[in-house]
Amino acid sequence: MDLLKIPTLNNPPYTLSDDGLQASNDYMSKLMFEHINRGGAPIKLFKLLGLKERETGILQEYVYISSKSLPCYEPVFLRGNTVNFYKSKETGINITTDCYIGIDCGYIKLKNGRKYYSNDASYQIHVRSFTLQQSEFSQNRITKCKVERSDDGVNWKGVQIVSLINDNLSHVYYIKESCLSRYWRIKPILFNGNNNDHWIVKKLLFSTHSNTAITDVNIDHGILENRKRSYSTDPIQLKVVYTPSNVDTMFTGFGLFNMNKQEMTIHFESTVELLNRPIVIGDIIELPFEGQFDTEMRLSKKLMEVVDVSWSTEGYTPGYKPLLQTVVMEPVTSSEENKDVVTKLKDAVGSQLFSNVTEYLNVANTSTITDSINNESKEKVPQKGINNQEIDKSLVNQNHYLYGDALPPNGESYTEGYVLPDAKNATDGEYFRLLYKDLDIPARLYKFSCTKKRWLFMEEDSRTQQDVVKKPTNDTLLKGNSPR
After folding, report:
1. Beta-strand relationship, 431-434 and 415-417
2. N or C: more exposed end of the chain, with fewer CB within 10 A?
3. What is the DSSP letter of 418?
């Protein structure tokens, strides 16, 4: 498991005090996250809408891509507030058949722009909305488009067809949930113009921000309070640690009742990354494994409402940085505040809908499910082994860790190729990454030494998947181009 991919709050920084133990705190946070994520109980959380959330946006700069464009009108920078705009080379009917514009997220990189992983791991995002501003002229606008995603930039899969507002203002359009992908684009379906008209885009932004806004709250202007809450009906999967409790206790006979309160422990940083905000009072949590069946074997879900949130006493580091939170919940009662989520979460158990696996597979988007699982696994574990670059060596024994990636330390630059450069033209301290053409042999990192006047072997890439049993190609055997 690559500990680098465990969520950490960097925007804004999650720091309560400057104790000088950032490295050890981060390491303990990763261990706690792994403990809860592996052995915790799965729950479903339904967010209370109308709260301020973290603007996730796109965490890494992306490159715009398009089919064709006129000279000087390429989609170089379409983030608004500039004179730059995109103008398609296609005109008329060709816009709805050949034209598109989108983004390529590229590879996972360091802050200095160098690739982080040696196996060219793609930077993937899950787009949930996009902002589009078109031309001030109606004949240069589209009114309907198709949002598509791709992992390789060649094979595209549809996500949703979106109807666009026909004006020159900037609008945000939300799309349904799909999965992580490297490439995203919008493809026109309906175009207003004639055969000689071009499609013009002034602003195009893709974001991971989901459909939650302050306008979702229904305020009762008579008594100035929020009696009608709005909840998201799309659950968010979380892992928690808790101990099931009995309603009847030994104190029940004395008139002391438990009231079915429940406490559970969550990992703070990873929860904020999933929800874009912390858990708050009013959120609804479903406990799937505590549902009850009635006499007709119909499932009744157990829904709990969050009534209190505080730092967990067992979640503090030696530097007194809190990493875990305790969430206190009570059973949901059907009222004016939460009737929105209670009425929408009624089960169809007992009906004939999806009564067998065959019927479910006929209607389920199995392609999206498969892609989501594959891409999420690549995003969380781009390479085998353990990333130890953020672990304090003085605190953790790193023996037997599989961490060599044949990349220079501290993000230093390097060159790569199939043959070591001539020592006469090399400079002291220069790094070179030796690749092996047509052979599944791990890459090797060399560093030039002026003292010894030769390239010194540093390490071998042990984190990239290699198949050393694979036979070399005929090109290597006949021409002898192997650098070994």
Report:
1. parallel
2. C
3. S
- At 215 the three-state DSSP class reads helix
Calculate the CA 398 to chain-centre distance. 29
Q: What is the DSSP string of 420-463?
A: PPPGGG--TT-EEEE--TTS----EEEEEETTTTEEEEEEE--S
Contacts (Cβ under 8 Å, ≥6 apart) of 294: 300
The residue assigned the tokens 């990189």 is 109
Say how far residue 183 (Cα) sits from the centre of its chain. Answer: 14
How many other C-beta atoms are found inside a 10 Å radius of the C-beta of residue 264? 22
- What percent of the chain is modeled with pLDDT above 70? 64
0.70 exceeded by the pTM?
Answer: no
Residues 314-347 as b/e (b if ≥16 CB within 10 A, e otherwise) read ebebeeebebbbbbebeebeeeebbebbbeebee
CA atoms within 13 A on the CB side of 277: 19
**pLDDT tier for residue 301 given thresholds of 50, 70 and 90:** confident
**Range of weakest confidence among 28-42, 220-234, 426-440, 456-470:** 220-234
**Residue 146 has which token pair?**
């198709």
Cα–Cα distance for residue pair 469/389, rounded to 1 Å: 30
Tokens 């009072």 belong to residue: 281
Please give the torsion angle defined by the CA atoms of residues 27, 32, 35 and 38, in that order, rounded to the nearest 10 degrees.
-90
406: left (phi over 0), alpha (psi -120 to 50) or beta: left
So what's the pLDDT on residue 114?
Answer: 74
Residue-range domains of the chain with CATH:
3-52+223-351 (no CATH), 63-207 (2.60.120.260), 409-479 (no CATH)
Q: How far apart are the first and last CA of the chain?
A: 32
